[in-house]
């Protein structure tokens, strides 16, 4: 009898174990991590350059569902999309999701930039940036941006029959950043930044293999050069501040240097340098691309161009000859800003972004493991027919009432507490640039309508246009 009992017990143990193991368990999302390090990175980058990245994402969604695993830029990643995903990313105020970009971005921009910080460090550094970039501070810089735009147009647009828009817009936004954020006027010191800066941004989204002749390697070397130049500027401004009590509001670096609590600098030197680089990249590429695509749109849509021109000419009529634009003038450019927002919806400069799971996170029936990247994609809500009817149609009236857009659906600048601190700065430089361009010129597109992403949208031939000077208002 005893032997029978023992046999039954031995048979029962594995059955009980199996029953226990078949309880609902935590599962990672479906998908494949692919080849180690490379994963699906090359496939995504190829799709972006071919301007089929949205289809690449949609194919994954059709195959695996609304959440799937893959490997991007050397790290296991979970792709999520949609309004709920955006809210999950931007409204998460706890410690479960933290800032972390791809390895390539982290190594190129530095590990003390705002995109890498969380918790108290994020709040401290963000507060320093916002103190300079908030509307109350920017009001006094409108005339400086106005001066840079007019100087740029005199030098690169007037008396020209044809121009390539994107390279010129990159030059303009680069000069505004150098002047306003770093206090660098035109000259040798500003010029030293241009070539390494262009080389640095080319490797921002790249497979992090640091081998000679790779984009990543070239970007790392360019980053080291820029950090050295910025370090020199920081030291120079520190000396000026100690000697002369320099105005803390004259540029971003001076502003951050002036922040002191208990006789200690609030922002470290590395944080100043790394966040100066972040602002360079964010303010340079996103604004230059948005202005370029607005110009492209105005060439394609005569009725919208006429409405923008009418609004801007009304503002110009109220100005004396040579009088700069003011903050109040910008507040009147409501239709132009709606056009800018619709351009951002259709052609967001930022394709998507990354966060990191700081702990195991349950989401949509799956678990995102601790340490994995979370990848969200901007266009998945921008082009959702349930959110924006006829999403392929360009319609600025969508933004007549911003409150009518569901939250976390229009996210070109992020959302919630994580919204881009440079949002208002971008608005100022875009509106000032468009004002002078549309009141001084009309244009005709000479290149085709196609563009690729590398990783930001780049029109064919840099958007080549033919210029026609307008008769200036008396």
Widest sheet, order of strands: 1-2-10-7-3
Which architecture does the CATH hierarchy give at level 2?
Answer: Orthogonal Bundle
The profile of the biggest β sheet is: 5 strands, mixed
Instruction: Calculate the terminal CA-CA distance, rounded to whole Å.
Output: 113 Å
Short description:
With 474 residues, this protein is α+β, with helices and mostly antiparallel strands. The protein has one domain (28-397, 406-469): Cytochrome P450 (Cytochrome p450).
Protein traits:
single chain; 474 residues; alpha+beta; Cytochrome p450; 5-stranded mixed β-sheet; 3-stranded antiparallel β-sheet; 18 helices; 14 strands; disordered N terminus
């Amino acid at each position: 009898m005893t032997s029978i009992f023992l046999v039954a017990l031995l048979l029962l143990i594995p059955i009980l174990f199996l029953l226990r193991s078949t309880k609902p368990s935590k599962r990672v999302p479906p998908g494949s991590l692919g080849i180690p390090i490379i994963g699906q990175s090359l496939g995504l980058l190829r799709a972006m350059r071919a301007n089929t990245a949205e289809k690449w994402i949609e194919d994954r969604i059709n195959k695996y569902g609304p959440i799937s695993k893959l490997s991007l830029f050397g790290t296991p990643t979970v792709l999520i999309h949609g309004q709920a995903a955006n809210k999950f990313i931007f409204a998460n105020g706890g410690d479960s999701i933290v800032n972390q970009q791809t390895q390539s971005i982290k190594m190129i921009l530095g590990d003390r930039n705002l995109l890498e910080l969380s918790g108290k460090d994020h709040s401290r550094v963000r507060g320093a940036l916002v103190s300079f970039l908030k509307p109350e501070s920017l009001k006094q810089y409108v005339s400086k941006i106005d001066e840079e735009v007019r100087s740029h147009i005199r030098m690169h647009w007037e008396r020209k029959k044809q121009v390539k828009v994107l390279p010129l817009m990159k030059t303009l936004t680069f000069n505004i950043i150098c002047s306003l954020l770093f206090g660098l006027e035109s000259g040798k010191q500003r010029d030293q930044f241009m070539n390494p800066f262009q080389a640095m941004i080319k490797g921002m989204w790249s497979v992090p293999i640091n081998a000679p002749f790779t984009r990543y390697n070239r970007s790392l070397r360019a980053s080291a050069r820029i950090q050295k130049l910025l370090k020199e500027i920081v030291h120079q401004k520190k000396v000026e501040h100690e000697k002369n009590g320099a105005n803390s509001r004259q540029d971003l670096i001076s502003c951050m240097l002036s922040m002191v609590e208990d006789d200690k600098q609030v922002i470290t030197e590395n944080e100043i340098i790394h966040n100066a680089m972040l602002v360079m990249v964010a303010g340079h590429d996103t604004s230059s691309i948005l202005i370029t695509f607005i110009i492209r749109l105005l060439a394609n849509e005569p009725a919208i161009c006429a409405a923008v021109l009418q609004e801007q000419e009304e503002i110009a009529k109220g100005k004396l000859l040579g009088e700069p634009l003011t903050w109040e003038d910008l507040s009147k450019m409501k239709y132009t800003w709606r056009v800018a927002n619709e351009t951002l919806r259709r052609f967001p400069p930022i394709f998507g972004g990354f966060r990191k799971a700081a702990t195991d996170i349950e989401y949509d029936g799956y678990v995102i493991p601790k340490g994995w990247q979370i990848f969200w994609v901007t266009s998945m809500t921008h082009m959702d027919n349930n959110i924006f009817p006829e999403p392929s149609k360009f319609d600025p009236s969508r933004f007549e009432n911003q409150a009518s857009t569901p939250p976390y659906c229009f996210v070109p600048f992020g959302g919630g507490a994580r919204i881009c601190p440079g949002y208002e700065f971008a608005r100022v430089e875009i509106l000032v640039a468009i004002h002078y361009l549309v009141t001084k010129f009309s244009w005709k597109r000479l290149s085709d309508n196609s563009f690729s992403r590398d990783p930001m949208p780049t029109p064919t031939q840099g958007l080549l246009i033919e210029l026609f000077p307008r008769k200036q208002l008396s």
